[in-house]
Design goal:
11 helices; 4-stranded antiparallel beta sheet; Aspartate Aminotransferase, domain 2; alpha/beta; pyridoxal phosphate; transferase; 11 strands; transaminase activity; 2 domains; 7-stranded mixed beta sheet; PyrdxlP-dep_Trfase_major; Aminotransferase class V-fold PLP-dependent enzyme; Aspartate Aminotransferase, domain 1
Length: 372
């Protein structure tokens, strides 16, 4: 059966079969709390959660897994840093391709605290122009590792090198699981990820990494199962950022996804060929990186002769192709790329797409725009 689901930038599908099996294992068999009780099932559950934390930390090259806290999603992780960071100069730099998970909390702080938000200098596709970056009196740099609009992969290691002592908050919602991330080597200060996209885990899972160089207050306060005699939050990690019962079933599923990641059924050549062939169609405009070496397996497009909504509907109605159409919760990115306010049609692949699926996608798009 063909895989016609190309909305993996929103959430990945399908998942490895072990993901639902692991969730069922927790719900139907294990079922105990995490980090709060002392009997066999509780020990087993706590062990599963910590094994997932360790494996995830290893995947991200985080040397101290206790600094990796589970969150409901990347948005929660981003808000945890953005809303509780100590802004000495009240100046934040962001890329022009940021998601509303970054821009809305920054807008809130601008209204409440007078935080100044400025865009990093960038090239036409949104790639940061390292040579033009000015970090004078900057408190924090926030950047999307891989754009959820055009798939641009930012040069994080090079950027961090010139930031010197200015901390960076890396939004890896799209990239984690798709692109190698090395927190230790890149000297990343804060990292936000989600589990349900390229990591192929279930929704309701994410994580926040905080460097030992920085201390920020948690977004939530509540029970942790540790130091319960005190009304203040424990200072230990990861407990400081894990108030309340976590999504244990989701963490079981994420752990299974990490242990059972499939090999990609399509080749890099097939993806590159898709982009080249679509770019050759006169009435199609592609939104991609200008450097294919910095291109994730996600891109957007539009037709000069069709509205994006009509074209996306035709792709689904006539060919079963499932996409994401509109502004992708990233109006700032679309404004920068001159695709606001209509937006674009987004295509995002997963390891479960074969070369045949990719070829079918191309032919479907070609037929739709040719018979409009």
């Amino acid at each position: 059966m063909m895989n016609l689901y190309f909305d993996n930038g929103a959430t990945s599908f399908p998942k490895p079969p072990q993901v639902s099996q692991a969730i069922a294992q927790y719900l139907d068999v294990d079922g105990a709390p995490y980090g709060r009780s002392f009997y066999e099932k509780a020990f087993k559950v706590s062990s599963e959660v910590e094994e997932c934390r360790d494996l995830l930390a290893g995947t991200l090259s985080i040397p101290n897994p206790e600094r990796l806290s589970f969150t409901p999603n990347a948005t929660f992780a981003l808000n945890s840093v953005i809303k509780n960071f100590n802004y000495k100069h009240k100046r934040v730099l962001v890329s022009p391709l940021e998601h509303n998970a970054v821009m809305r909390p920054l807008h809130y702080l601008k209204e409440k605290m007078g935080i100044e938000v400025e865009f990093l200098p960038a090239r036409k596709d949104g790639t940061i122009d390292i040579d033009k970056v000015n970090i004078n009196k900057c408190d924090l740099v926030i950047i999307s590792h891989m754009s959820n609009v055009n798939g641009v992969i930012q040069p994080i290691k090079a950027l961090k090198h010139i930031l010197e002592d200015v901390p960076i908050l890396l939004d890896a919602a799209q990239s984690a699981g798709h692109i190698a991330i090395n927190v230790e080597d890149w000297d990343i200060d804060f990292l936000a990820i989600t589990g349900h996209k390229s990591l192929l885990g279930p929704t309701g899972t994410g994580a926040l990494y905080t460097s030992p160089k920085y201390t920020i207050e948690p977004l939530l306060h509540g029970g942790t199962g540790s130091h319960s005699e005190f009304l203040s939050m424990p200072e230990d990690y990861p407990d400081l950022f894990e108030a309340g019962t976590p999504n244990i079933a989701g963490i079981y599923g994420l752990h299974a996804a990490l242990k059972n990641r499939p090999q990609s059924l399509h080749s890099q050549d097939a993806f590159n060929t898709l982009l080249n062939k679509l770019a050759a169609i006169d009435i199609i405009k592609l939104y991609v990186s200008t450097d294919r070496n910095n291109q994730g397996e996600l891109f957007s497009f539009k037709s000069k002769d069709h509205s994006v909504s009509e074209l996306a509907f035709t792709l689904y109605k006539d060919f079963g192709i499932q996409t994401r159409v509109g502004l992708h919760c990233a109006p700032v990115a679309h404004s920068y790329l001159n695709s606001f306010p209509e937006g674009l049609i987004r295509i995002a692949l997963s390891p479960y797409h074969s070369d045949e699926d990719v070829d079918y996608l191309y032919n479907a798009i070609k037929r739709c725009v040719s018979h409009g």
